[in-house]
Write a structure and sequence with these properties.
With 176 residues, the protein is an alpha+beta fold. Helix content is 47%, strand content 17%. It is globular and about 40 Å long.
Length: 176
């Protein structure tokens, strides 16, 4: 004896079938595309959080400079050294380069070593931190008076340079 069963086409069954068929077709297409968030400019999540992060990271830079053994052998001159760098995929500084300043070789070497030692860069409060650009102004001074003069010089120079830059092109500032 043969039993025949009739399958009915209910709206619920058709919807589930359509969803099941559509799912494998949409995943590969969206997996390879870049989202608009990845192409968007760096957006700071909170200005207060950014200022706190900058303050803490500047303290980290100062601690690294105090530990630098080479600066005890050959003292850095009273100077400003500006170091540009980017946040790498591993959360460390990469593409570290001296972009401005009048520091001797000891000051330049100490500044680059201090930036290289930063371990909190990936905590920067921006939406997409990888590839974020930074500019650290490191001031070497024998006393507070010289430090204040050099810091004022850095601030004036920075104002002139940043006035001509678009806001999206400006790096995140550290030090000073």
């Amino acid at each position: 004896m043969t039993t025949r069963t009739k399958f009915t086409k209910t709206p619920l069954a058709l919807g589930a079938l359509a969803a099941a068929l559509a799912l494998p077709l949409t995943v590969p297409v969206s997996a390879g595309e870049k989202t608009s968030a990845e192409n968007a400019p760096i957006v700071v999540r909170s200005q207060a959080a950014m200022e706190q992060w900058q303050k803490e990271t500047t303290k980290d830079l100062n601690r690294a400079l105090a530990r630098d053994p080479t600066s005890r052998k050959v003292r850095p001159n009273n100077s400003i050294v500006e170091v540009a760098f980017e946040l790498g995929y591993d959360g460390k500084a990469e593409n570290i380069r001296i972009v401005d300043g009048n520091g001797n070789w000891s000051a330049r070497r100490a500044a680059k070593a201090a930036v290289r030692s930063l371990g909190t860069l990936d905590d920067v409060p921006v939406r997409n931190p990888e590839g974020t650009r930074f500019l650290a102004a490191i001031v070497f001074a024998d006393d507070r008076e010289i430090h204040e003069k050099l810091t004022a010089k850095v601030a004036q120079s920075r104002e002139q340079r940043f006035a001509s830059m678009a806001e999206d092109d400006r790096p995140i500032l550290l030090g000073g």
